[in-house]
Amino acid sequence: MTMSVKWVKSWIVPAVAALFAGAAMGAVAQTCVPPPDASLEKCKFILSIAGYAGAVIAFLIGLQQYRRGEYWKRSQFLAQEMKEFFADSRVENARMMIDWGVRDIPLLSPSESANRLEDSGERTVDRSLQCKALRPHDWPDTSPSAPVPSSDEAVRPAPSSDAVRKPERATLGGTAFEPEEAAIRDCYDRFLDGFERFGNYRRGNLVSVKDLKPYVQYWVDDIVDSKCDATDSLWCVFLFAYIEFYSFEGVQALFDSFGHDIRINSDLVKVFADQCSDKPRANRLLAHVRQAKAGKTLV
What are the backbone angles phi and psi of residue 182, rounded to the nearest 5°? Predict the structure, then answer.
């Protein structure tokens, strides 16, 4: 049955029936043996009020049933969206990386080398590797753990965000990514794409915060929890910078709806930057993202 038919049955039909009932009651009153004129007019007035009151009650009942039907449809739609989202293997990998500081993750496809040694594709992923993976593609990370590009390398054009470093090739200014790092970015992109979609649903009032809470509340709270160690704090700075650099505005809107501003100029990000394990590196990253976003705004 289509929505329009349901709407007519649950709302219009009861209201029309009540109006006809009121009219019928008025007709019956007119055919009654009339009492004195004043009493007749009073009787007709009371019956008219009763008829209109019945119509209003029927309208409200129909409206309530319609809203329940809309809520049920919205709940079914969101449940299906969430089912598909959480069933995605890359989303599952991203959730494990968010939840764990160190974890073996099936990042790469299983393969077999020339000497017939099997590679399951699992890699040990820690916060340091995640930070390297989540850096902007045009930012040559000069942390102690990252290679410092030479002057010759620095003038080369920066590769795209999905450029993968080959073992025999130069680092292209320190901005190319190892296969493991590219796979980590793919996982986070898939996770953030889902949050972007949910945030846009919320901005468009297609769903409410109450609708979203059972599905995303845990992950929102886990990411913004500032009661963490210095290593996790640095990872949070990189994640928030990644979200801002690549313009996941729906993700930011989703966190806004849960009461958390994750933009890089917010107080929350400042807290993470101040307590992280490498404050100079975090500040360089944030300054780079601010400059990049300012340049895009001017263009």
Answer: -65, -40
